[in-house]
Design goal:
2 domains; four-stranded antiparallel sheet; 7 strands; three-stranded antiparallel sheet
Length: 151
């Protein structure tokens, strides 16, 4: 049984920047309910929180396991495997992990920027797209490097 509930799946530019001819991949937001890992009220985790090493702390929930916020939201690329030596529930190399409170308060534009930054990694950000009269397209990055792309 999974501790995650799929919130949504959207397509993002695979390298974090949208340009003509870029590849797109699916990114899924996986919500972790507040009660997961919480010692109360039913005592499902008598030996402590088994997810503390890779998730933010649990959120207080009532006896019915209801809470206003999620414990966490984990963002993963399409095909990201789940299961590490530490836990079968841990995603291998998630893009981003937010607390439920942070997820509830972030505007979509800011969330989009954070997911794109995670997809980009340590590569420079796209700065410009140049269209030549002969139909060639060149993309230019913040560090001054560039490459030709097909439209």
């Amino acid at each position: 049984m999974s501790i995650y509930a799929t919130l949504w799946t959207l397509k993002f530019p695979a390298d974090g920047d949208d340009y003509p001819g870029c590849e797109w991949i699916a990114v899924t937001a996986q919500g972790v309910p507040a009660h997961i890992g919480s010692p109360a009220p039913r005592g499902e985790y008598p030996n402590g929180d088994p997810f503390a090493a890779f998730l933010p702390p649990p959120v207080p929930a009532n006896e019915d396991r209801d809470a206003e916020l999620l414990r966490a939201v984990v963002f993963v690329r399409e095909g990201t495997p789940k299961g590490t030596t530490r836990s079968g529930q841990e995603y291998v190399d998630p893009l981003l992990v937010l607390t439920g409170e942070a997820y509830a308060g972030i505007p979509f534009g800011a969330l989009h920027a954070r997911v794109c930054a995670a997809l980009r990694g340590d590569r420079p950000r796209l700065a410009a797209t140049c269209y030549a009269p002969d139909g060639r397209v060149r993309i230019v990055f913040e560090d001054g490097t560039s490459k030709d792309v097909s439209e």
